[in-house]
Amino acid sequence: MELPFLTGGKTRTILFRSTTAALMAFALTACNSTPRDRLTTGSVPIAGKPVEQMSAPELTRAAESVGQRYDKNPKDKAVGMTYANILRMSGKNGQALSVMQQVAIANPTDREVLAAYGKAQAAAGQLEQALGTIGRAQTPDRPDWRLKSAEGAILDQLGRSNEARARYRDALDTQPNEPSVLSNLGMSYVLTGDLRTAETYLRQASQQPGADSRVRQNLALVVGLQGRFDEAEQIARRELSPQQADANVAYLRGMLSQQNAWAKLAAKDGKALDNGTN
Predict the structure, then answer these.
(1) Residue ranges in the chain assigned as alpha helix (H)
(2) What is the rounded (10 degree) CA torsion for 217, 145, 100, 46?
(3) Considering only CA atoms, which of 177, 107, 117 is closest in space to residue 150?
(4) Are 133 and 110 in contact (CB under 8 A)?
(5) CA–CA distance, 63 with 82 (Å, rounded to integer)
(6) Residue 16 has pLDDT above 50, yes or no
(7) Are 32 and 180 in contact, with CB atoms under 8 Å apart?
(8) Considering 32, 160, 238, 261, which has the largest number of Cβ atoms within 10 A of its Cβ?
(9) Of all residues in the chain, what percent carry a pLDDT higher than 90?
(10) In the predicted structure, residue 21 carries a pLDDT above the cut 50
């Protein structure tokens, strides 16, 4: 069972965009899914827990605490990057971008800052600008596989899947079997409806020593989209608390529910094409 990725026509365009947005929101959780792969590596200690693993209340408290530190010294690189990351994880992409702009102004040649700034731009929907920023962070003599992977994720959002996959493979040449890159590569194939190839890469990613639960959640999504929901639920519940697992399973059910709606719309749209009405 594959996603009805369609071309041409208003209905198809809306379907493709909504599908891509929903899947990329899920896929990009794996873009920086391991400590080694974080673009935003500058950080300050927060409750002994990575920002990416915080609950909504924890993010709110962290935003208040780190925000106060940022207000006192907006030029502090580590505090600014951490604050922007918290804001982004809280869904406040515009604010995160504003913070990273200030950090980038204070550190215009810092590769780590430029990479995080590009990430914030991408989260705020400034995809072309993000590519340029991350490109400036990359240096030919010292290519960074994390930046290659980040470029791939942005190119996927722009619909340039072949270029995106080339970036992922470049990253894998430097960092073989890196689970976050394999996961991104797998999700790239989801976005073009090739679920079997996607599953192959995601299974490979999930078997790597550095893979965390978010890589396996992407695998659960792909397995579920092929109609094997019982198996997908088993994967989704591994290594998570009951509350987290329930939330992920609910998300998977929602995705499958939407897929059924997309299939019906696709069938209806196909009939309209046959009748020459579209």
Answers:
(1) 10-27, 56-72, 77-89, 93-106, 111-123, 127-137, 145-157, 161-174, 179-190, 195-206, 213-225, 229-237, 242-274
(2) 50
(3) 117
(4) no
(5) 9
(6) no
(7) yes
(8) 32
(9) 42
(10) no
What does the pLDDT read at residue 45? 59
What pLDDT does 195 receive?
93
Burial class of residue 277 in the structure, from the number of CB atoms within 10 Å of its CB (0-12 exposed, 13-18 middle, 19+ buried)? exposed
Q: Could you tell me if 205 and 195 are in contact, meaning their C-beta atoms sit under 8 angstroms apart?
A: no
Nearest Cα neighbor of 198 from 156, 154, 260 is 156
Q: In whole angstroms, give the CA distance from residue 233 to residue 251.
A: 11
162-202 pLDDT, tens digit per residue, is: 999 999 999 999 999 999 999 999 999 999 989 999 999 99
Residue 106's Cβ-side half-sphere holds a number of Cα atoms within 13 Å equal to 15
| CA gap 193, 32 in Å, rounded | 23
Q: Give the chain's length.
A: 278
pLDDT of residue 25: 43
Dihedral (CA of 158, 162, 167, 171) sign: positive
Helix (H, G, I), strand (E, B) or coil at 53: helix
212 phi, psi to nearest 5 deg: -110, -175
User: C-alpha distances in angstroms, 250 versus 9, 219, 264?
Assistant: 31, 15, 22
Residue with tokens 């190119």: 155
CB contact set of 191 (below 8 Å; sequence gap of 6+): 5, 19, 20, 23, 24, 27, 156, 161
d(CA 127, CA 108): 20
**pLDDT, average across residues 38-59:** 63
pLDDT of amino acid 57: 86
Rounded mean pLDDT, 30-59: 56
